[in-house]
Each structure stands twice: as C-alpha cells, then as structure tokens.
Fold each of these.
Amino acid sequence: ATGSSIMPQKKNPDVSELVRGKTGRVFGNLITVLTIMKSLPLSYNRDMQEDKRPLFDSADTLKACIEIYIKMLPKLTIKREVMLRAANTGFLNATEIADYLVNKGMAFRKAHESAGKVVSYALSKQKEINELTLPELKSFSSLISEDIFDILTVQQMINRRKSFGGTSVENVTNAIKDAKKRLAESNALLEKFSFSSSLKKGG
C-alpha cells in the first residue's frame, strides 16, 4: 500500500486497485474477440487472425495478476473486528425492515416507505437501526413486533440469503468447496498436460 496524495492517514491498496483495473482490459479483449467471431459466413476467415492479440494479451495479463496476488495474499491481514464494526453501520439492514414488513402482509411500496422513515428517524437520533427500541420501531408500523430484532444483525442478514448465489455461510462454504474441487481438477489436467509434453520432448 502507498499513502494518499492528499490524505496522510489514508492507505491505498495499490495491488488490488491495479488488478481490478486490469479487468476492464480483459473484458475489452473479450468484446473484441466476440465481435470478430460474430456472424462468420462459414468457417475460418482471414480476419480471424485479429483474435490473436487480445487472446495473448489476456493470457499475459491474467498470468501477471495471479503472480502478484500470490505474493500479496500471504501478507494480507484481515481485521475481523474492524470489518464487523464497519458492516454494522450505514443502515445496511434497512432493506431487512422492508422485507420483514412485506412478510407481515404489507405492500412493498408501503414497506419501502416505512423503512425509509425508520432510517431518517435513526439518523436524527444518531443511532443504528438495531439500536432503536421496540416502541420506537413500532411507531412506524403496528406490524412490527419483538421478532424484528431477529433479522437486524449482520450475521442474521447474511444467513437469511440462502438462495443460489446467496451470502449465507452454508452457501459460501459450498462455493469454496466447489472452487477447491474445480481447482484440483484443473491442476490435475495441467499436470497431465505437462507430463505428456515432457514425454513428447523426450521421445
């Protein structure tokens, strides 16, 4: 990380920022290749030679990003307490109130309006939503009861998202297992390819 040009207390995660920026380059190469390959009249055409530059550039870019991430990640320190404290601020749970009211039978438009009023009230009191009392919350809707506090923490919000691609611990754990499985399969394929190549060279 490097310091900011204007804010002395700020640290810029240079590696992550630069790698994120590289995604634009790779996506641009993808659009280039898709455009070249679109609506081919038959099979190979001479204009397909234009796909080599974006292909090789993407491979080189990906390789460079992986190499630098391999060096960065072991030195990364995750401050869980700081992250949790930050996640509990900023009214991320406002949508939970709207969903809660909808599940209680309120129309979404009205639920959205009520959630917005809760946020405005919390701001005026310099509180987070989960710091409000039950009487304060009930003043915005008679549908609100004690069980609303079961959905307002970060952990509860995360674990409620159980649909495919959701953020629940179970979903993320399964996604990690799947990623490790695919990585192992890719490594096995690479080893097989490398072994075959060495045999050919030896022959």
Amino acid sequence: MILLKPGFEYITAFFGCLYAGVVAVPAYPPSTSKTLGRLDAIIADCRPTAALTTPEHVDAIHPRLNATAPGARVFTLPDIDMATADQWQPTTGKSSDLAFLQYTSGSTGNPKGVMISHQNLIVNSTTIQQHFNNRRSGHVVSWLPPYHDMGLIGGILQSAFVGCPTTLMTPIHFLQRPVRWLRAITKYRATASGGPNFAYELCVRKSRMKTWQSSI
C-alpha cells in the first residue's frame, strides 16, 4: 500500500512498485475518522504485505495492519536505502499481470478494489491519448489526487505514456484558491487538464465572489 500525501514521493513509490513487479495499492494516509474507516476497509479487502508511509503516520497504520494483515511490514521514506537501487533486476511478467488495485471512494459503501492489469493500463492510456489528441509537444496540468483514477491515470501516467511534461499541484493547493489551477493552465499553456464537476463550479463561485467583493 502507498500511504503518502500527493507529491513526487507518491509518484516515485508507484513506479517503484511497477519496477519491482509488486501490486501497487494507491491510498491516502489516515487523517480523519472517515479516512481511517476507508483505510480499514481497504486493508481488510487487499490484505497487503507491506505499506509505505511517513513517520508521523506509523502509529495509526501499524496496529491496523497487524489486526487484519498480520506480518505486513511498514516502511517509512527515511527507511529506504537508495543504494539498494543498484541491486535492482528486471522483472519478468505478462501484460495480463495485475499492475495495481484502484479503490473506489467508498461514498456509498465500503471501497471496492478494481483489478487493473498492465494491459488494461496500456489500452486505457492509448484511448485517452487518442481522444484527447495528446502529443509530446503538449503539457498536462493536474491538481487531482494520485490515489484517484483520474489523477493517477489521466494526470500522471498519461504524461509518462505520451512523453509530455506535467505540472502538478496538490488538491489542497487548488481547494484553497481554485484560480491557481486556471492560472497554471494559462502559464504553462496546458493542452490537457480536467476535473470533476464540482471543480468547475468552485472556480465559477469563487470568481463571482471575488468580482462581487471588488465591486463593493
């Protein structure tokens, strides 16, 4: 399980799982009672053998793993010895092998894990590239969380698949000031960006509020 906040470490951890030939389980570190409940449900469903997180979340994660997945190890970023990268050996696998488990939000019940194979990922990435006409000369801007399918596949993996640059911001960075997203699209001349309906509604609402305040 990858239990890290959005950032470069999250992306590195995901690709590390692929390189190691292990099944990645993108998730979010516990912060509220709601996220703790979601984490418990995911652990119970996938029974992970290891989790990667940061030191401040170990106390919340470790007992939950022990209760449902005994023997699972908890690693923190400071535990990772970068020198071990020299020992990496290419893995052998098939396109039908499982790449990662994508869990639903759990808003209407327990999160459900969707099994995504390497072939699924390639086909999906190809379809996105064709329909959005993404090119190496393009630029992706995304604030979507990496544990969400749109943020991970559309915002991060698509740029790696196509070979174009990506500008990322955290979800909190966007929610605090939605205009940051729009400014990033303009500044970096983004050719691909997106979000759920509420993101556009939030941009409109905040923009109207700003205009109204300026007119007083």
Amino acid sequence: DYGALADCDLVIEAITEDLGQKLEMWNEVDAIVKDGAVFATNTSSLAVIDQAASTKRPERFIGLHFFNPPQLMPLLEVIQTVTTDEESLRTGFEFGEKLGKVCVHAKDKTGFIVNRLLVPYMLDAIRAYEEGAGSIEQIDAAMKAGANHPMGPFTLLDFVGLDTTKAIADIMFDEYRERRFAAPPILRKMVSAGFFGRKSGRGFYDYSGEKPVAAELGL
C-alpha cells in the first residue's frame, strides 16, 4: 500500500532491475507522496535520470546504491543526475552517514563506479575459464591469494546471482557497446538453464552438498 508513504521525507525503491516496472511504480508513488519528499532509486546499473524524468520532481531525485549484503557492506554510492539539486544530494549523503555508510559521490553513468569496474572483472573471469586459462577453483584461488580479494570471482558471481550479473551486463553493453561488458556465452546458457548461483543451489559451484564444489559445466 503506497499510501503509507504519503508523509515520508525520503522514499527509496529497491524493486527488480526493470525500468518499465520502476517507472510504473514511480507513477503511482509520485501521485501520493508529499511534494517536498526526495525520491531515490537503488538501481545498480540503470540510468537514474530515466526514472527522475518520469516524475514531477526530477530535481528531487537521486540514486542511493547499496551493496549486498547492505548490513555488512559499508559503501553507499550517492548518484547525482543532471537535474538533481544540491539540497536533495545533501539529503542522500546525510541519510547514508546516519546509517554509518561510506558515502561516495557518483555521476549518473551506467554502472556508476563499482559496477563499471567490477562487472567486467567478473565477466573476464568467465572468459578466462572458457578459454582454458584455469579451472573455476584455480581462478578463484589465484585471485584470492594473488590480489588479496576476500573471495574469488566465481564465488562472487554465485553470491551476486548469475541472472543479476547478466542483467547488469546487458544494460551496460547496451549503453557502451564494448566487449568488456558483453555477457559470455556460458553465462547466458547458465541463466537460461536456471542456474543462478547460491539462490538456486547451482551456479559455478554446486551447493547441494555440505560444501560447495565446482559444477561440471561441460566445457
């Protein structure tokens, strides 16, 4: 019931990463929430301005991109569009700081800062596996020990969700048309098969046993 949001000072959406659904939601919320409220989207890849422009308050619209799991990850990307006013941007920073977040100012560029760098890294790991550079376990172990990452790229992919990664990659490739953002064939096939990672019980690792084991992908 969106009516409960009527008197809120800040409204943050975190629905599925689908622009059409987000625009439909904002159309309803915009008609209910008081004029002075700030709207924010938690999108991880969609252009914030596309949502802002669909409302009657584009100057009071920002991006607040939390990272998963938000109760553990300290970063909050605070995104400013070409229409965002300084007061609304300040509201975003103040809100994040009250939550104890490390707030970083990001411009409204598809993927913002982290995903623009992180997604190509994960996709390159898949390509390295496809091309025989190493096994799933070897690539994960190498990046943990050699780059001091807390988890390898395939463990991270399964944690994020292969369907989510593919959706973000598709949005970024559509925007930039660069190979580094293109979802590799095996990722597309796994998503089509319903292998989404931890949440489905199978991704690059199989989670059906006591400990995750690298899945047999037929390559």
Amino acid sequence: MRKFAISFNLLFPILLAALLFIPYTLNFLAHAMVGEKQFPPIIMMKLPVESTAVTLPAEVVQFTPFDITLQLDSDALAKRINDIIAKFPQGVAMQGISDKVLSHMQAEIAGNGFHIDNPGPQAQLISTQGGTLWSWKITPLSPSRQTLALRLHITAIDHGQESQQIVDLAEIQTFVQKNPTEWIKRYGIWLLAAGLLIVVSWRRIRQPKN
C-alpha cells in the first residue's frame, strides 16, 4: 500500500484556513436561519436633556458613514444640573457631581464596532441660537445591535477647587444592517487568496513524488 508523507508546512495553511472560515460560516448560517429583529435607533438620556438634542438617521448600514449631531444649550444645562444638585440631601451626587457645574463643556462619542473620524472630547466650536452644535461622522464596522455613548467633559467646582469630570449624557442603541456588497469589496480579495492557497497546497500534497 502506498503511503503519503504530508509536510506540516503544507498542512498548516489548510488548518489555518479551516480555523478562520469554519466559525465565520457557522455564525453566518446561524444568523441567516434565526435572524435578528431590526429596530430604529433608541436614545436614552442620562442627564436632564431632551432626546431631540441628538440627531441621527433612522437606518444605519454597515460600512456606510453617517452623521450624528448634538445641539445643546450648555448654559441652560449647567443651570438645570446646579438647581437639581442644590435640592439633593448632603452627600448625594449626580454621576459624581455634588457641587456647582460651569457651562463650558466638551462632548465625546464612543462605541465599539464604529470608526469615528474625530474621537475624543471636542471643544465648543460651533455656536447657534439654540446653543452649541457638535457633529461626528461615524462609520459602522460591525452589523447587528450596537451601542454608542455620548459623554460630556465638564468643569465642576468642589470646595472652591475646579475639577474635570466625565458624565454620561446619552446612550444610543441602534441596529446596523448588514452590507454584503461592501463586505465582499473589502474582504473578498483575502477570501480569494485563501482559496487559491488551499487549492495550491492541496495540489502539491496530491502530486506524486518522483
């Protein structure tokens, strides 16, 4: 009986390709059979601000950039927070704030599964009659249910000393629709290269030795 000697160098790419593609294939089939319920973006405010202060599209698609804007009257918000804190009992705080808040604020948006063009805290650069307007361009990289967090970097005065604090302004839950066409454009070349590697490796294994 003829014996085949398989080199580990030839077998390794096949094993690696299997490890990469089998989990992806199983995950794809599971989502295709079960499916996920889509929903419009949900904005949950964590400070005394109307949810209409945050604007974003009704539908979010993977790899498709979109804009999120935040229009906030920082003077009115600081006054509202200070009025609420003044009514708190001694020792009670709002997200760690227990004393006066100044109106100068910076805003930040963050979230896993997204590419954000201008990450980190952004200064109050654009002012309108309705307050300050912040804007971010965001590209969703992962499909399915995703979460974005809007945060404010504020200056608080505690016992006469200024301190910088970060507070949660809002949580945005959104469903990112899959974009198979763009996914193939981005990663199809790697799938093709892996497939060619498997074919070449298999042919070399099957080739009889002299």
